[in-house]
Write a structure and sequence with these properties.
Length: about 270
């Protein structure tokens, strides 16, 4: 799978120009390659998590190369969403229970296996969030169709995510906000999708992780996503109404040496709202 992603990236111009064909005469396009890898990831058994992770990583790498302009979000989202939610359900506390009636050695073995299974699932889930960020398109109609569902997924999963999944969710949210449609002039068609409601939901989801008490990498990822929100919201007519909320999130954060520079930069951006 890594080779497929690497070769495809190296041949990006040729693939996008539809200059290659398969043995049966089909055009070898980025979409066809991604569809093939996706199909392979679906055929893997639930126990082959490492194989599945490699397939999903390749899909993410391919999307990072070809999207935009490629738009496969509508095709990929149902599969990736289901995978994310199934993993959250299967790794919940009630599904990782090991009976205390087992003898000590057997119980320790099962606890170790359950922990390993949970860790593998969470790594797969993190790659799924990476795919969502990479696949988020610039096409207005697709954004309009999926924006609410994507927000619901991000916000719901943040409540249950471990540190690694949180980092990937925030990275996906950063791309989500970066590409979200905001008209640049009165001649542009379509209404802004970065509405006050969308910004409010994003801020409420990201805010708590800015003060994550344990993982500085989570704080850094949350601040990066917050910066993108501030940058994009400046393009709207409702920027000022979010200023107080963001300032509250940042209050006192300049005392954290690991995120101090990010916070100072954000405070500077806020002064321009």
């Amino acid at each position: 799978f890594p080779a497929i992603a690497s070769v495809s990236a190296a041949c990006q111009d040729t693939l996008e120009a539809d200059d290659l064909v398969t043995e049966d005469g089909m055009a070898l396009t980025p979409m066809l390659i991604i569809q093939a890898v996706e199909a392979e990831s679906k055929r893997t058994s639930s126990s082959a998590k490492e194989y599945q992770r490699r397939a999903l990583t390749a899909i993410a790498q391919l999307l990072e190369t070809f999207c935009p302009p490629l738009d496969m979000f509508g095709e990929l989202f149902p599969y990736v969403k289901t995978l994310i939610q199934d993993i959250s359900e299967s790794t919940g506390e009630g599904n990782t229970f090991v009976s205390q009636k087992l003898d000590r050695k057997k119980r320790e073995e099962e606890e170790k296996e359950a922990a390993l299974h949970k860790a593998r699932n969470r790594v797969v889930q993190a790659e799924c969030f990476r795919i969502l960020g990479a696949a988020w398109p610039v096409q207005y109609s697709t954004q309009q169709n999926f924006i609410e569902e994507v927000l619901d997924l991000f916000i719901g999963e943040l409540k249950m995510a471990n540190w690694n999944s949180k980092v990937k969710i925030f990275a996906a949210a950063e791309k989500f906000v970066h590409r979200i449609y905001v008209p640049t002039s009165s001649d542009d068609k379509g209404h802004s999708l970065l509405t006050p409601y969308v910004v409010h939901r994003l801020l409420q989801a990201i805010g708590p992780s800015i003060n994550d008490p344990k993982y500085h990498i989570v704080r850094e990822a949350a601040l990066k996503a917050l910066k993108e929100i501030v940058v994009r919201v400046k393009e709207t007519q409702h920027a000022s109404q979010h200023k107080a909320v963001i300032e509250k999130f940042l209050k006192g954060r300049e005392n954290d040496p690991q995120t101090k520079l990010q916070v100072i930069e954000l405070q500077g951006l806020l002064r321009t709202l």
